[in-house]
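Exercise 7.
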Amino acid sequence: MELQQGYETAGNERQCGWRRAIFLDLDKDGALTFAQTGRKFMTRTVLLTDYAWPDDKVEREVIEQAGFTLVSGPAEPSPPAEIDALAAKHQPDAILTCWAQVSETAIAASPNLKIVARLGVGLDNIAVDAATERGIWVTNVPDYCVAEVSDHAVGFAIAWARGLIHFDREVRGGRWDPASANLRRLSELACGIVGFGRIGRATAAKMQALGCRVLAYDPHASNIPADVELADFDTLLARSDIVIVHAPLAPATRHLINRDAISKMRRGSLLINVSRGGVVDTAAVIEGLDSGILSGVGLDVLEDEPRVPPELITHPGAMITPHVAFSSDASLIELRRRAAEEVVRVLCGEKPEQPRNSPRR
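Solution. The predicted structure, written as tokens, is:
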């Protein structure tokens, strides 16, 4: 009996992998032994390094319905050496990763690896160059959380302008002092957006709906809307009451918001970071808060998360959330399914829909 590789569809689900008619059993290595020939064929394995949700049900459903085997690591991201060991042990054909580091070592340990799929947007936890050199696709899901992240940024802005977090803390602490309010009218403020991609544009539209004047800085952006003022970095900092960071983390953007940048901001302004922790220098932010240049910060990401500096925890102007801007019931299901579908697509011999590299073949 000949074993064939390919895929077929059943309803809306793709079935891809090794199809067989008769087999004896799965041996201890997970290989199929066929009665007619005695030959062995390894099933294709997908390694899920970690996940930021209660279970792996969505990923498992997509992968197993396609005829592949899903091996899940621990939910919390393991140190790079442990991910390297997982890759060496299972030698996967595909890797799905959320926060865990997929290093050059992990990639080299998987001779059959075809794709590393990020359960998210940023790629700073994947050795993209190493994957490219070995002919391995790297993918992400760049647009699954546009609404959520932009909502989160706007939420920080509203909470700061209207004193929502501050006065909630005050009242819970037994203080009822409306005369101490120093609140702002959003429609009279200027909002500068650093990074004008999908999420930056969505944030701009929402801030404009609240009446804000919007400036944008992005050296790679094009087709800027007529009602958004494109500005250089220093001009944006000097003219904005609210600065929202939507920039990816790369060597050129690490500590883009540093002591020098903060010194150029309007006194009493608000800084929001919902992109990557490394884009903002945490020590400089603390100095900015202490000096009064920053009257508030809204941080969903930190350089050394989950560690939060005590100076931020105790500062009344700091609003901090635990890297959840991307999250909603709808966005997580979309993210998980689309990332897993990219894996199936590539293992079925197709090109991915969201490639982030051009593998050398």
